[in-house]
From TrEMBL:
SUPFAM superfamilies assigned: Phosphoglucomutase, C-terminal domain, Phosphoglucomutase, first 3 domains
EC identifiers of the protein: 5.4.2.2
Domain Alpha-D-phosphohexomutase C-terminal: 375-449
NCBIfam families: PRK09542.1
Enzyme type, top EC level: isomerase
Cofactor(s) recorded in Swiss-Prot or TrEMBL: Mg(2+)
Superkingdom: Bacteria
Name used for this protein in its record: Phosphomannomutase/phosphoglucomutase
Pfam families: PGM_PMM_I, PGM_PMM_II, PGM_PMM_III, PGM_PMM_IV
InterPro entries, per the entry: A-D-PHexomutase_a/b/a-I (IPR005844), A-D-PHexomutase_a/b/a-I/II/III (IPR016055), A-D-PHexomutase_a/b/a-II (IPR005845), A-D-PHexomutase_a/b/a-III (IPR005846), A-D-PHexomutase_C (IPR005843), A-D-PHexomutase_C_sf (IPR036900), Alpha-D-phosphohexomutase_SF (IPR005841)
GO molecular function, one term: phosphoglucomutase activity
Gene3D superfamilies: Alpha-D-Glucose-1,6-Bisphosphate, subunit A, domain 3, Alpha-D-phosphohexomutase, C-terminal domain
């Protein structure tokens, strides 16, 4: 019987409830389809700490090996550790994770060799079509010679590679609280931080895909409350929070205050431009005005792009960019195969803070120049109609520019906002920034009144 994968094959990955929406039999077909579409004779596969991850990843490996591909299993890993393995071994890869989704979910993030992304336009649609066909007609013909399946440890080499990209040899001792959210940060942080002059205070390092303490999504302020309190209680220099698959990293200063991912993007951009003078830096269109300003001040060229890792990675490849950052705390590095790694961004923050005597709040103040609303979601029945009403309200006004690179962006001399529709939910997402908090609040409330009318 054919299966409908429309609910689980997303724009960039596979994600759904196990076993209701997909299971090990489908994972095996995904493995076979992956090596067929990528024409790979060898791949690398890793997985997170979810209860269903070992079984799903093993099934995927069987499907790939049945068609003749050799499979290297790296076992428990973060998503950026899988990207490391794909880049260092020059193999296509598959990571079994559902990131910050609840425990019953799982998914697959796939990449070609060198960590190049696989999305709807770069192979994922073809993979889906094969799995749907094979689920109805039966599995593909087994290769004359099955591939091998071997295990390999990559955590040590991953940590060594990251530390080769940031000089932490001369930093002052720092006390850092890390909230791993029972996700893969609990696996990677001890090895990456080993040997550094850090007093590490671990929180929720036990690998537990049922997330007993809080959802592993630091973008939601409710999920960093424990970290904020612990930073203050410990008198720590900073706090770090990783999401479930540890590819994103959020930063909290010594006062327990969240540091904007835009400020982190600007800070890391300045450091990367010191290493690669005159380089190009990618930023999505809802990062702060401060990001392109800092890039220009440091001799670089900023390039504005749509939201989403596939767009960032495409622009990085097309422009030869050295670094890219998003408001969602995804950070991309040319020195990491253009892939995103929150861990490398965290090491840059530690190096910057430890290389001077001031506090983190004082350090990032130079990169946090404007008043931002953060992302505000509104549930609406008709996304197009509400977005059109907002456009009509601002179109034709003197002193305003409108563009539709990604949703609607309206820019004035003292403020801007972006309104985007969610691809997966009946939501409109609003981001507002202004030169002062009063103006930001005024624009925010005006737009929300139109959105929610």
């Amino acid at each position: 019987m054919a299966v409908d994968l429309s609910q689980i094959v997303k724009a960039y990955d596979v994600r759904g409830v196990v076993p209701d929406q997909w299971d090990e039999s489908l994972a095996e077909l995904f493995g076979a389809a992956f090596v067929t579409v990528t024409q790979a004779d060898a791949i690398v596969v890793g997985h997170d700490m979810r209860p269903s991850s070992p079984g799903l990843s093993a099934a995927f490996a069987r499907g790939a090996a049945a068609l003749g591909a050799d499979v290297t299993l790296i076992g428990l890993c973060s998503t950026d550790q899988l990207y490391y393995a794909s880049g260092a071994l020059n193999l296509p890869g598959a990571m079994f994770t559902a990131s910050h989704n609840p425990a019953q979910y799982n998914g697959i993030k796939m990449c070609r060799k060198g960590a190049a992304p696989v999305g709807q336009d770069t192979g994922l649609a073809e993979i889906r079509a094969l799995v749907e066909r094979w689920s109805e007609q039966g599995a593909p013909t087994v290769a004359a010679k099955a591939g091998t399946i071997v295990e390999r440890e990559t955590l040590t080499d991953y940590a060594t590679h990251l530390k080769s990209l940031v000089d932490l040899s001369a930093i002052r001792p720092l006390k850092v609280v890390v909230d791993a959210g029972n996700g893969m940060g609990g696996h990677t942080v001890p090895t990456v931080f080993d040997g550094l002059p850090l007093d590490l205070v671990p929180m929720y390092f036990e690998l537990d895909g049922t997330f007993p303490n809080h959802e592993a999504n630091p973008l939601d302020p409710a999920n960093i409350v424990d970290l904020q309190a612990r930073v203050i209680a410990e008198g720590a220099d900073l706090g770090l929070a990783f999401d479930g698959d540890a590819d994103r990293c959020f930063v909290v200063d010594e006062r327990g205050e969240p540091v904007s991912p835009s400020a982190i993007t600007a800070l890391v951009a300045a450091r990367e431009l010191a290493r690669h003078p005159g380089g190009t830096v990618i930023h999505n269109l809802i990062t702060s005005w401060s990001v392109p300003e800092v890039v220009r001040e440091n001799g670089g060229t900023p390039v504005r792009t749509r939201v989403g890792h596939s767009f960032i990675k495409q622009e990085m490849a097309a422009t030869g960019a050295i670094f890219g950052g998003e408001h969602s705390a995804h950070y991309y590095f040319a020195d990491f195969w253009n892939a995103d790694t929150g861990m490398l961004a965290a090491l840059h923050v530690l190096a910057a803070l430890g290389g001077q005597e001031g506090t983190l709040s004082a350090l990032v103040a130079q990169y946090d120049r404007y008043a931002g609303s953060g992302e505000i979601n509104s549930t609406v029945e008709d996304q197009k109609a509400r977005a059109a009403a907002v456009r009509a309200a601002y179109e034709g006004q003197d002193g305003l520019t409108l563009d539709e690179l990604d949703g609607l962006t309206v820019t004035a001399q003292d403020w801007w906002f972006n309104l985007r529709a969610s691809n997966t939910e009946p939501l409109l997402r609003l981001n507002v920034e202004a030169r002062d908090a009063t103006t930001m609040a005024k624009v925010r409330d005006e737009v929300l009144a139109l959105v929610r009318a």
